[in-house]
Structures are given as C-alpha cells and as structure tokens.
Design goal:
single chain; 13 helices; 236 residues; three-stranded mixed β-sheet; mainly alpha; GMP Synthetase, Chain A, domain 3; 57% helix; elongated; 3 domains
Length: 236
C-alpha cells in the first residue's frame, strides 16, 4: 500500500487535532498545488497554525529537540567550519561542538544526505536539532548577509529615495522679510483662506505685517509706536 505523502499526513494531523478545519486544509493544499512550497509554511502564512504548532508537531514526529536560534549566541568559529555555500544550500546553522559532535539546527532534521555532506566537510560527527526555517534564514543573513539572489532582488525592488533633508546647521539663515513680502502678507489677510495661510509665515514676518496694517489703518501712529518700543526695551 502506497504511503501517504508527508505534507498530507501533516495536514491530517492538524485537522484531527482540531487545530485547523477541513476547509482550511483544502485552501492550503490548493495554494500548494498552484504555487508549490511546504504545506506547513503555507498554513502559517494563512494564519491557520502558528510556528510553534508546526515545530512541536515535527519534534514529536521526528523525535528531535527544538531550539530557538534567536536565544542562542553562536561563536563565529562555528560558522567558519562549514562553507557559506553549504550553509545557504542546506539551510543549516551550526550551534555547538562538544565531544567531537557538531550540532546543527535545521528545518529538515530527517535530511540525512545533508548531514552526511556536513560531516564530510567538517570531519566531525553531526547531530541535528529542529529550528524554524524563518529563524534559520534570519541567522544566515545576519552572519553572511543576504544571498546574491536576495541582494539583487532588493536592489531591483528598492524604491528611489529622496536625498535626506539638510541638517539645521546646513540650513542658511532666513533673510529679513522684504517690504513686498510684508505687503503681500497684509493683503492675503483679507479672506479666511488667506488668514489660514498667514499662519505658515515666520513669526517676524507676521509681526511686521501687523505693524504695517495698524499704521495703514490709522490705529496707531509712528510716534506712539516708537514710544511703545522704547518702553518695551527698558523692560527687557
């Protein structure tokens, strides 16, 4: 009797456990049929299961330990034991070397061919533990940087960015307002729209405009204005 494919067994397990419904499983299988990819990752992206759900199921099924790479500090020397090409291709992260056994984290601990290749390359016995594919990708990118394909994609898709605005030190000092600018500010104050736009003018310009308006309206004369300015100067 032909055995059930691994992805189908995974989906059936989550459905029988009540984690997902039959409709959600069918949705994920349809996406996998159209786009490919692993069923577990598709279920996570759809929000039907969590990353912990997937890891815990795989750990029980494969009888391996689960590790959280984000909580580990990996010595750089361990990374250098394996070529970057092998690490990227096999999606593994070396996490410890104890008693002649190199422990690597992988999302596929059942991939014996990959473990044999690492053993041949390092000359060490190799043991595998389970980690999320997302954390593995993040750790590899953190140590080696994005892969050439990812870097090219980022370069192509990166939006054009405007140059950063000049710093405060680099901005030239604002020149004093000209009589024409003051007159324009007063004229714009006739309508409501103009009054709102007036608020965006510098404070000094608005004060000058107000003084000109008061003088033009006869609300104050130059002699009175000069006296008020002298009195204000004495209080400073």
């Amino acid at each position: 009797m032909e055995s059930m494919p691994e992805d189908i067994r995974l989906g059936q397990h989550f459905m029988k456990s009540g984690v997902i419904t039959e409709t959600q499983l069918d949705e994920a299988l349809e996406i996998q049929k159209d786009l490919g990819g692993k069923l577990g990752r598709i279920l996570i992206k759809l929000g039907h299961i969590t990353e912990d759900d997937l890891l815990n199921h795989l750990a029980r099924q494969l009888e391996v330990e689960v590790v959280r790479l984000s909580k580990l500090k990996i010595p750089p020397a361990l990374w250098r034991m394996i070529s970057a090409n092998t690490i990227r291709a096999k999606k593994i992260v070396p996490i410890s070397l104890t008693g002649g056994v190199l422990t690597v984290a992988t999302a596929s601990p059942q991939d014996l061919e990959a473990l044999e290749e690492i053993k041949f390359e390092t000359g060490e016995n190799v043991a595998a533990v389970l980690a999320s594919e997302r954390e593995i990708d993040e750790m590899i990118a953190l140590f080696f940087g994005p892969s050439p394909t990812e870097a090219l994609t980022e370069e192509i898709e990166a939006p054009e960015t405007a140059p950063p605005p000049p710093t405060e030190e680099a901005k030239p000092a604002a020149p004093p307002p000209s009589p024409e600018a003051v007159k324009q500010a007063v004229e714009q104050a006739v309508t409501k729209e103009a009054r709102e736009s007036l608020l965006r003018f510098p404070t000094r310009l608005k004060i000058d405009a107000l003084i000109v308006a008061l003088l033009d309206a006869g609300a104050i004369n130059e002699e009175t204005l000069n006296r008020l300015i002298r009195e204000r100067a004495k209080q400073e």
